[in-house]
Amino acid sequence: MKKIILVILFTQFSLLSHAQSNHTFTLSPSDFLLDSKPFQIISGEIHPARVPREYWRNRIQMAKAMGCNTIAVYIFWNYYESEPGHFDFKSGNKDIVEFIRICQQEKMWVLLRPGPYVCAEWELGGLPPYLLRIPDIKLRCHDPRYMQAVERYIKELASLVKPLQCVHGGPILMMQVENEYGSFGNDKQYLEDIRTLWKKNGITIPFYTADGPTAFMLEAGNIDGCAIGLDSGVSDDDFAAAKKRNPKVPSFSSETYPGWLTHWGEKWARTDTVDLLKQVKYLLDNKKSFNLYVIHGGTNFGFTAGANSGGKGYEPSLTSYDYDAPINEQGQPTAKYYALRRLISKYVSNIPDVPQHITSTEFADTKMEVVSSVWNNLPSPILSVQPMPFEAYGQDYGFIIYKTKLIGHKSGKLSVIDLHDYGTVFLNGRYIGYLDRREGKQTIDIPKSDEKFPVLEILVEGMGRINFGQELIDRKGITNRVTLNGMTLMNWDVYKLPFDNNYISRIKSAPVDTARRGLFFKGFFDLNKLADTYIDMSNYKKGIVWVNGHNLGRYWEIGPQKRLYCPALWLKKNRNVIILFDLLQTNAMTVSGKNTLE
After folding, report:
1. Is 180 a catalytic site residue?
2. What's the burial of 266, exposed, middle or buried (CB within 10 Å: 0-12/13-18/19+)?
3. Is residue 592 within 8 Å of 363, Cβ to Cβ?
């Protein structure tokens, strides 16, 4: 017995010693060197904030079974610091240290991408919206108020990840400085100061930057001493551009795209697998390191989805971040996954078997009932001379109602300057139409009324904040003023509706006028087995879904997404409660559970 115990203790000590072995990771002019030997990074990107904690290990194992040796990890600052100085790196799937430890347990290295700005189709590119409460703040530059917050964030995060660097026995090989800065600005001293802050707080591993493979982006976005990431690098010309920028450091494809993002109102993005395989083969043949962005996208639960502002104007992102990735939103391997696995296995030996799939289930049509309306659940109003954005009232997400009496002009052309992002308009308690930033629809005709002082109400939904480009200062709600026939409307009652867990848990049932939009629906469904499912919202128009108190995210009849992913760990074998808030629906319809996103 003593001999068995000694063997067990020796085995555990050996495993611990192996796990905690210190390593060196350095940059040569042409290679990454792990313990002084050339090392090809074959990375798949996964975002812990988009994946339930209980599924982290499975997703990491899936990446390994596709042939990856590294996981790239975006850290979304605003997910961990919701209010200044109030950090949460422990609860739920916010335990970033545990995610990195699981990577190490699965013998995977880590590329850490902590921002402070990250983009990622995530709300405000990961920057905390509390920054926007400062009316004249500037982001991603030397604005002292921004930099004070950045310094606080870096100090907090560095204290957690410092022991996880490879030089201290952890799996983190390299850290990115900011993200794609050459697409945004040219303050190279800002980038230097970000790197200095990390060093000051104990980060000693190499750094890299990531930018498009063009001369101006690389000049503005890369700083001396940092490896050069290319978003993406798929040709000799791309890598030659990196070498021209700095011949003293290695370059790699920091974002090779196996899929692409989708916005509301678009068709699902579906990328060509043949071209992808050509790109990956080029990288493997030329021993170029690369990171697949993303190998698994996950889900923008709650209010976390971002938005873009390209040539089409405001483009809000879907709740699903499936991304047409090799591992789909629900964690299943796709045909693209197996094609990449077959290719990579020609260059990498001893790829493990694909882990067992996580199952999904369906449930039958479930009856819903109208139980209340937003109008039955209003807080005390805040008096405002003119409407202000959410941030001015200390609210980051959800909805706000702006209410005023019409004096002087009482009908005609109403203009909201500027509406961010979607509004339903009511006159004397009756719905008269909607406003939509996405469509550029910010005016509506107000009909004549018999009331002496007609009551105008605008229920505004703040959708995703812009995450890329020059429009990052993207406050929500009514961001300027409201006019009727050119007259500015004054003296508003403002009702804050954050739609957080505290608000939703207090929704009181009450009789409602179903002709007045903004209704809450409630239903119950039972499951014979616990498995993932997709809640099919095809019968509803625009709103949000909660299952057993968990916010699954937004749905919208314009599509393409009509189903919302619900992981098994949020479900019960007995009664499950589903609550919907719909901006437009007036009658209760059924919902059901499906096996797949489409």
Report:
1. yes
2. middle
3. yes
Length of the chain (residues): 598
Beta partners for residue 111, in sequence order: 72, 174
Q: Give the pLDDT band (50/70/90) at residue 9.
A: very low
**How far is the C-alpha of 555 from the C-alpha of 300, rounded, in Å?**
12
Q: What is the pLDDT of residue 11?
A: 37
Give the number of other CB atoms < 10 A from CB of residue 440: 11
CATH number of 378-497: 2.60.120.260
CA-to-CA separations, 59 to 2, 40, 56, 543, 556, in angstroms, rounded: 39, 21, 5, 29, 28
Q: Tell me: pLDDT of 13 over 60.
A: no
Res. 311 pLDDT band, cuts 50 70 90: confident
Domain boundaries, the chain: 2-344, 363-372+507-594, 378-497
The answer, yes or no, to whether residue 15 has pLDDT greater than 70, is no
Query: Considering the domain 363-372+507-594, what is its CATH architecture?
Result: Sandwich (2.60)
Q: How far apart are CA 425 and CA 434, in angstroms?
A: 6
Burial of 185: CB neighbours in 10 Å, binned 0-12, 13-18, 19+: middle
Q: What are phi and psi of 526, to 5 degrees?
A: -110, 150
- Classified by CATH at the fold level, domain 2-344 comes out as TIM Barrel (3.20.20)
pLDDT tens digits for 328-366?
999 999 999 999 999 999 999 999 999 998 899 999 999
340 three-class SS: helix
Per-residue pLDDT reduced to its tens digit, 16-72: 333 469 999 999 999 999 999 999 999 999 999 999 999 999 999 999 999 999 999
Residues 498 and 520: their CA atoms lie apart, in Å, by: 15
Query: Of the residues 178, 180, 391, 457, which is catalytic?
Result: 180
Which of 255, 315, 391, 461 does the annotation list as catalytic? 255
Strands (E), 475-541: 477-484, 487-488, 492-497, 519-525, 533-536
pTM > 0.85? yes
Q: Are both 363-372+507-594 and 378-497 of the same fold?
A: yes
Could you confirm whether 439 is annotated as catalytic?
no
**Predicted confidence (pLDDT) per residue in 414-450, tens digit:** 999 999 999 999 999 999 999 999 999 999 999 999 9
The torsion angles phi and psi of 522, rounded to 5 degrees, stand at -140, 145
